[in-house]
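Both lines are retained for reference:
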Amino acid sequence: MLTRVFIRPGNGVGDRVSAALFAAGAEAIQEIDGGFMTIAPADVGARLAAAAIVADPAATVETFDAPEVDWTSAWRSQLRAHTVGLLTVTPPWLAMPFLPEHRIVIEPAMAFGTGDHATTRGVLQLMQDEIRAGDVVADLGAGSAVLAIAAAKLGAARVAAIEFDPDAIGNAELNVAANGAGHVVRVIEGDAAMILPLLAPVRVVLANIISAVIRDLTPGIVGSLAPGGVAIFSGMLTAERDAMRVFLADAGLVAGPEVVEGEWWSCTWRAAPPGDGATEPGSGSVRRGL
């Protein structure tokens, strides 16, 4: 028997709830009606419901019996290719129409990052204006390695895809190989706070993770950026924008372009030139997402 689980976050912490669902064994999550829906065997569904409540005690959780179907096929039928600027993120079975130099083939798995989420698209949009040929790039919380592969496609010379979750490493390595990016991208399992300083100086840092982790990592990011380096952040809600802009400016970074898609905010911040302070929190242009 399959169970359909629907979770409506109650405290504006949707990113935390979705991360908890994947960590508890969800194979796919669909965003619908302001919440998250997934289908799993009954015992797994109970575990997912419990994980959602732990992540957000104010969440509303509903469970329903679901018909026995080929869920993998049904899930695959809902996935699509996402084109952002020059790049297209696509599952393997939809990859053929897209030019190899512009496509990023991602095998959907538990690792976050298939292009379906606004936070991934936000970073993809912003990084196309920042990555230069020969760049050294660090992707923190790499998940499926979609952003690391994108950096390689945009001309980066070396990319470190750092991921703490051991369950995501295999998928990341599979995707790097499938895209022929193994000569540029190295998947590293471990704590970004410890690994990033060992890679410095880095010209571009990518971090599509929740705001609490971004806050923890910011001192190391600032210290690891090369002069004129850039950090692109996502995984944050628009409701967090004002507070995070003050925090990042206080850390010595200079505000750059931003993208807003729905409730999600992605942003570019630059290392302040020597002797300069960060800009006022109100500066920086905002662009609406695709």
Summary: The longest strand covers residues 225-237. Residues 143 and 159 are 14 Å apart (CA to CA). Confidence is low (pLDDT under 50) at residues 277-282.
